[in-house]
Give the backbone structure.
Amino acid sequence: MRAIYYDRQGSADDVLILGTVPRPSPKKGEVLVRLYTSGINPTDVKARTGFSSPMKFKRVIPHQDGAGVIEAVGFGVPIDRIGERVWVFEAQSGRAAGTAADYVVVPAENAVRLPDAVSFEIGASLGIPALTAHRCLFADGNLSGRRVLVHGGAGVVGSAAIHLAKWAGAWVVTTVLDPAHEPIARAAGADLVHVTNPDEDVAAEIKNATQGKGVDRIVDVNLVANLDLNLACLANGGVISAYAMKNATNDASIPLLRAMIAGAVFRFVYIYTVPWEAKQAAIADITACLEADAYRPMIGLTLPLHQTAAAHIALEGGTVVGKALIQMFEEQPE
């Protein structure tokens, strides 16, 4: 099969190689998925550059997320899953081979049924962004009637958080850095969008919009930059969930007295260490959201397999607004 792989860490144009490798076969409890779309996440880029950790395998086929059709199953997996349309998550977690290839083998539970009306492009956009957003939002209870602040509402995780929060019955305010991103966040369903401006008192505006109550949940892509704002507009007992950091030494100092007075709860989300039970709950909610046609991620870039390095470079350079995808085949099954 065709695959993109790297044998050493480094820049995309230096280390990513398009080649032919043996097609894998599913073992006990596994499924073989023919991939139609592969999704690229910042963690894929960080793994390739060595940001996260040294290489754990001699050769890595990158990408955690994807979507396609199950073509074969291993022992113990119901044979009627063959032909099932699925979205795949954490394909390369603890394994050498991810979704940047024609086929991937994953544990059966990492291939989730994709509703018939949902495209492979949307399926490949789920995985890490949707699971991360769900954990940030729902780890501390139901969202119905809650007030949620999502930082970076035009980002992949940010827009996923808006979709899921609105589906769950929350009121959502979001911040964006670029005025051009405002319509993207609004299209995702945000009730209120603030373009970050140093001359504005965003916290006061959020408190005013919530009748002085503040927000119950905050989903944060940059806790260091947003900490003062978060504490200023957090409702008493509210939760701040952080899921990203700018660099490996990106430390934050928490003003303990302010946080204590606010009754603030800090939650840090790294999807690979989230308990399996929480992921199962997320999958159920994501499926329900998809079936309600309430999850419509923006696709920012789609390139063929042989241009995977270009997609990595674009994502790493911050020029992609929306999900970056790799399309395996021109034609997809009906």
User: Anything to note?
Assistant: The chain has eleven helices and 15 strands. The CA atoms of residues 25 and 137 lie 37 Å apart.
